[in-house]
From TrEMBL:
InterPro entries: AAA+_ATPase (IPR003593), ABC_transporter-like_ATP-bd (IPR003439), ABC_transporter-like_CS (IPR017871), ABC_transporter_ATP-bind (IPR050166), P-loop_NTPase (IPR027417). It comes from the Bacteria. Signal peptide: none annotated. Residues 4-235 form the ABC transporter domain. GO terms for molecular function: ATP binding; ATP hydrolysis activity. This is Spermidine/putrescine ABC transporter ATP-binding protein. Keywords: ATP-binding, Nucleotide-binding, Transport. It comes from Bacillus canaveralius.
């Protein structure tokens, strides 16, 4: 049994005067421990699909199951990390990383210690009493990752979490997130329009077309890339070949990211 299964997903947004189909006939599976990426241009429904997977919106048609249970009936936790950190500026870093545990009523001595351990692993020792405005953008995103992981979610959903960062910080954070998720054996789905990021971080890449969003093709990343860090993958001789393959596929569809 696959860890996550999407079957025949179709979604249309309705208004008083129009109907806009965001997704059409999307079916795919994700294995436990995999890091997969949804890649495609704006308008291909990537973020809508993440929201459906998380159970935030119901698809117009189709089903999403996690470990064989429909997500709307599952009590499994999901971690959601966005391009903005959305830390509460009036709360300390400690208060920010514990807020998910408090809301889920799972804050305990053990879970608090786990959150602080994560903070340390992210290289953020000593910032517990700081406020978000005292930290750099990259540090705030690391805090957001700690907050996401602190609840020990079954599945992590990453919606362009590095796109607002400068390039050097982005590359460093890609490595940090990749190593962290691998060490905790987490299953993750990344949404991006960055081909290089998709290749460097993923085990598999799902390429979508737009208007409406359809799954066009799946690429399996070569073993020599998916077993090394994103930064190392970008500098590997095999990187250029898979990059050109995906780029040409997008061009053949008349789309660019």
């Amino acid at each position: 049994m696959d860890f996550l299964t999407l079957k025949d997903i179709h979604h249309t947004y309705f208004s008083k005067t129009s109907a806009n189909t965001a997704l059409s006939d999307v079916s795919l599976e994700v294995k436990e421990g995999e890091f997969v990426t949804f890649l495609g241009p704006s308008g291909c429904g990537k973020t809508t699909l993440l929201s459906i997977i998380a159970g935030l919106i119901d698809p117009s048609e189709g089903t999403v199951t996690l470990e064989g249970i429909e997500v709307k009936e599952s009590d499994s936790t999901f971690g959601y990390m966005l391009q903005q950190d959305y830390l509460f500026p009036w709360r300390t870093i400690e208060e920010n990383i514990l807020i998910g545990l408090k809301l889920s009523k799972s804050l305990s001595t053990e879970s608090r210690q786990y959150a602080f351990q994560l903070l340390s692993q992210m290289g953020l020792d000593g910032v517990e009493t700081h406020f978000p405005q005292q930290l750099s953008g990259g540090m705030r995103q690391r805090v957001a990752l700690v907050r996401t992981l602190a609840t020990d979610p079954k599945l992590l959903l990453l919606d362009e979490p590095f796109s607002a960062l400068d390039y050097q910080t982005k590359l460093k954070l890609e490595d940090l997130v990749w190593h962290t998720l691998k060490s905790f054996r987490k299953t993750a789905i990344l949404v991006t329009h960055d081909i290089g990021e998709a290749i460097a971080m993923s085990d598999r890449v799902f390429l979508f077309t737009a208007n409406p969003g359809r799954l066009h093709r799946m690429f399996t990343i070569p073993d020599q890339l998916k077993t090394i860090s994103p930064f190392a993958a970008r500098n590997h001789e095999a990187f250029s070949g898979i990059f050109q393959t995906i780029w040409k596929e997008l061009e053949s569809l008349g789309q660019t990211t």
